[in-house]
Amino acid sequence: MADTATMPAVTKTLELHLISPNEHKERKLRETRKAYQQALRAAFDANCTTQSATNDIVVEYDLSGHAKNALKQYVPQLCGDTYGAEKLHDVAHHPVKFTNEGPRLDHKPQNHYEWYVKIPHHEDYHLWMPAGVNPQQRPWLEALYSDDAKMGECRLFKRDGEWYLHVTATRQFEPEPVSRDRTAVGVDIGDAALATVCHRDESGAPTAPEIYSDEGAEVRRLRKTYFTATRRLQNRGSDRIAEEYGDSLWDRIDHIIHRVSRKVVERAEQVSHPVLILENLRYIRESMEYGAYMNRRLHGWAFAKLHGQIRYKARQAGIPVETVDPRNTSKVCHACGEEGTRPAQATFRCTNDACWIGEYQADLNGALNIADRYRSGESKPRSDRDSGQKVASDDSATDGASLTGPQDSHSEGETRPATSGTHAS
Known about the structure:
Order of helices and strands: EHHHEEEEHEEEEEHHEHHHEEEEHEE
Largest sheet: 8 strands, antiparallel
Number of helices: 10
CATH class of the largest domain: Alpha Beta
CATH architecture of the largest domain: 2-Layer Sandwich
Distance between the termini: 45 Å
Helix content: 25-40%
Shape: elongated
Radius of gyration: 24 Å
């Protein structure tokens, strides 16, 4: 596998529309913009050509360190030869810049709004805002949330009376194609088992399957607890307690996802020349026709995050990853290819009387079909994604790797009945 330093990188600017801030949050956003523009004007007028000089000016302003650090990078460029700016034109049109350590994304699929973003206000106060997103940019947001992309500089601005945050995202793509001589290790992510992993040996026989059904059951239990307990607390007016309790449950789910993704990669490492085969998320989303309840459960299991964590850990271990179209992998028999039935969630039954398969573990059947689809040449390369233009260097040293939005003691508990939850506004 190629060194990540030599892998091609692509960048894209993502636009998040901050939805209907209340009076309090609107005031805080205006305060942030005003303080930033005043600090920018003061540092520029003082002809700050170094970060140290800029720091001496902006340190006095009521801004988060993430905005001050962005100014320390930006002002010397304005005052030096980089931009050739002789004077600062119309400071009111300059967006508020944050380095990538500040803003954070959170994904709450159970809420009325799925995506939330944390906007730094000052050192110990941040604003969580629901965000509307462009559906075509959703794969990039999922990549950021699952640590499969790197966050760059962020810019807060107002346009036509609405607040927006622009986030730059960078993704590296592995070179392709991967040699077909590798051993295909199929990974099925499902409802009964969080993940099922299996490959075929040299004779073609299914070998050393691992089924993470206990983890799947634990996630289902935590999800159910989340919806019942937090709704009950909210109905009693205990929004803050509901928010904190809900976060603790999501942290436990997040821990399970990290643990299972690590085990999946460790399982692949036991195979000679492995390649991990995952389902293509784009096709999964297109084929979700299970109704609102099942869709909520599937999204709540953070498919994108589990995929992203597996890819990330596989890259660290030097194991290539490929994806395949998952359609019908759960419906056909891995032995004969005929369509079967699912008498139970975890059971696949082949309807071909001539096939040696009678009943088989359904998730294991899916994992083998996923591996076989790659072996037959039907894989989708990982670079089959949205693309942008080549990225330059990052705006700051920290890559913002952890994006599972930490809680802020100042976030407000204005919740929506039935669909409200963490960060609801």
